[in-house]
Amino acid sequence: MIIKAKPLPVSIIKATGYFITWFFRRRFNKMVINGIPIKDNHSYLLMCNHFSFWDGFWAAYLALNAIHKQQELKGFYIMVLKKQMQMNPWLKYFGCFSVAPGTTTVIESLNYAAQLLDNPGNLVLIFPQGNLESNHVRNIVMKDGINTVIPKIKGDCQLIWSSNLIEYFENLKPSVYFHLLDAGTNHDFKFAEFDKRVNSHHKEAIKKQFRFTDD
Fold first, then answer.
1. pLDDT tens-digit map of 191-203
2. Which of 200, 205, 203 minimizes the C-alpha distance to 176?
3. Domain-by-domain residue ranges, the chain?
4. 28, 154, 196, 214: least buried by Cβ within 10 Å?
């Protein structure tokens, strides 16, 4: 059985998001969003590369400052490993729900994610890599989960990828760069084409960050 989200009222979630924004502006040198147009009357599947403890918090910052400012979000949900949910039961109150790879409950988690995305205004965050990897890996290898979730979505869902990268350069504090990609909708989704677009976008994002090499 999966652990489902039991989110607090939207006003509390938004207040937490604004606190995260305030905290990040003190903790990091810059938070730079290379944004995209957000579609009206859609749900949103947000997918990011997965490389640090901060990933979920950065995604919340991104949802508030890149998506919610264009189209009001009604719900924010995150797919989280079940063992993390069991260790931190408070996560369910902030929109987290569990997934346990390699068990029979995986399909239940993927179906739950698709059901959430049936509703316009809902955002679901998934890390398709499934594992932590360096933010400078050149090739994003995605698990098959999104290939199960997306075809099950009955409504209109915008697919959004963000390659999140950090740099220090001349500063003591790191800067975070969010490179967003509009990856289409659930209606035109084909996994092979999606994978190719994401990897091309990710390589281009890394290239933009490198000052001194063409490799």
1. 999 999 999 999 9
2. 205
3. 10-209
4. 214
